[in-house]
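cache lookup: miss for this entity combination. No prior model stored, computing from scratch. Input as submitted by user K.M.:
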Amino acid sequence: MIRESLEKELIKLKEEVTKMGRLLADQVYKSVKSLVDKDLQLAREVIENDDIVDKMQMELESKALGLIALKQPMASDLRLIATVLRIIVDIERMADHAEDIARIAIELHDKKYIKPLIDIPRMSDNAQAMIETALVAFIEEDVTTSNSLIAMEIEMDYLYDQIFRELLSYMLQDQKNIPQATALLLVAGHLERIGDHATNLGEMVIYTVEGRRIDLNKIAREQKENHI
Amino acid sequence: MKIKLKSEEVKVFYKDFQALHGIDIDIYENRVTALIGPSGCGKSTFLRTINRLNELIQGTKTEGRIYLDQKDIYSAEIDVVALRKKVGMVFQKPSVFPMSIYENVAYGPKIHGIKNKAQLDSIVEKSLIAANLWQEVKERVHKPAAGLSGGQQQRLVIARVLAVEPEVILMDEPASALDPISTSKLEELIGELKKNYTIVIVTHNMQQAARVSDYTGFFLNGELIEYSKTKELFVNPRDKRTEDYITGRFG
């Protein structure tokens, strides 16, 4: 009986984390879209929605703590709840990055871009794909899916380096480009951080399933360095 | 860490039924070791092999070796009475003797030949203090022990065990008949006792095992399935059967 009710609660908890994660992916998508389209209204929507993400985090935290207090979970159940408690913090941080991107979009909305935005939307697509992959790994408790985040993280780092070099060249060309190039570089930085958090989620899934702790970010870094 | 007790290939048979199928375990000195598992898994049977209590049950046969400080307790030259003095036992239901609190505690030392009143007084006080009972009963040590609450009686039983200066204390479900407050007092006491004694506790209550013990062994169908540090076992068990049991998938 207790087992059954705990099982149900855990499934519910996972579903809600997934919901929070999907909202986050949407926030990332909208924040970059608002930047590309100079869509003030969409940028404001992203900022407002951040409160929903914060609220979800608090609710999930209290649910997870409630399960620990009332059901005294052990072993993989306990690890899953510990993972949820950490995942929701990462999701909330990622959502903060999306909010920061939206604020930059507002700041830049009346300025002409120094260059067409091509790699930033690519980073955004990649970030959303990483979030989705991490969520699938979490729902299915699948280590292989978690591991696939490594390649995506490497791709993210390449894109960031590329954007960095490109914007640097614009800054060198004309000093007047510096404020906007810096703002765009910040956007790329936020997206890159979102990718790091997504790999954290993958690490936690591996911990839930196998009780092993591994550093996917580090593996990605090492693989990237070996390529160069 | 010193190994206080070591069992090798311990098998117990009750007539035709084999209750234990070769248990190998190292129990460390000044640590609390919990034995968990579903009813009938052999955990209590194993506990009773440590002070040779099983042989009081007719038709029981024990094989294998158990070493207490590297001495085989099943060898011919072992004095069972002396062994049981070294290895005390606390049972599920507190069995106080129908006499005063004082007499309950002094009973063991008297049997072992201590007659001097001052010495007995000192043993009784020290044992009751060590069992965290002294403050509650010091005004009425000569009153009947039966007047104590269940939780106090269980601590009295522990004081009685301590009075004969054991080295190992075996506890078989010591808190299963106690209310939550008495249970928590008993658990606190176990934590203090391990400084001076080696404790092996059998419990049905997994949360209790998790709270009080340093090492946990999981028994199933007469086998020791997994034995490791308590934190390891409850957070990250190695064996699927342990995982299934502690997460409530069976048992």
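stored under new cache key. Chain A is about 85% helix and 0% strand.
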